[in-house]
Amino acid sequence: MADVLTAQAVRDELGGLAEWSGDPTGISRTVEFGSFPAAVAVVDRVAEVAEELDHHPDIDIRWRTLTFRCVTHSSGGVTHRDVALARRIDEIVRSVR
Ligand SMILES: C[C@H](O)[C@H](O)[C@H]1CNC2=NC(N)=NC(=O)C2=N1
Predict the structure, then answer these.
(1) What is the per-residue pLDDT across 15-47, written as a single tens digit (0 to 9) for each?
(2) ipTM over 0.90
């Protein structure tokens, strides 16, 4: 099981994840797309990455706005796996904007 990052370590990692906020209980990013289908297409691409990493974000879909929350459920907090997933989500968001 991956180690939960300390509050300071999460703050340090968030320094490199400008769009994300959070603490050792979870990190999240909200992003609005041009339409509901565009948002769902992003969810589909994130699903592929999540399967590849075997690590899955919590995703809230509200019309064309998505909120991604990354936390390692089995560890009970944020781990390096969540930081890696957040970076991959950012890559996907960048690629569609
Ligand atoms: C068996 C498999 O590795 C686990 O169920 C994985 C799948 N994806 C996961 N994703 C997240 N975010 N937390 C987990 O604990 C987790 N567990």
Answers:
(1) 999 999 999 999 999 999 999 999 999 999 999
(2) yes
Q: Is 81 touching ligand 1 by the criterion CB < 6 Å?
A: no
Ligand 1 atom 2: the closest Cα is on which residue? 54
First to last CA, the chain: 35
> Distance between CA 66 and CA 69 in Å, rounded?
10
Phi/psi for 23 (5° steps) reads -155, -175
Residue type at position 35: S
pLDDT of residue 1: 83
Q: Does residue 74 have its Cβ closer than 6 Å to ligand 1?
A: yes
| Residue ranges of domains in the chain, CATH in brackets | 7-95 (3.30.1360.20)
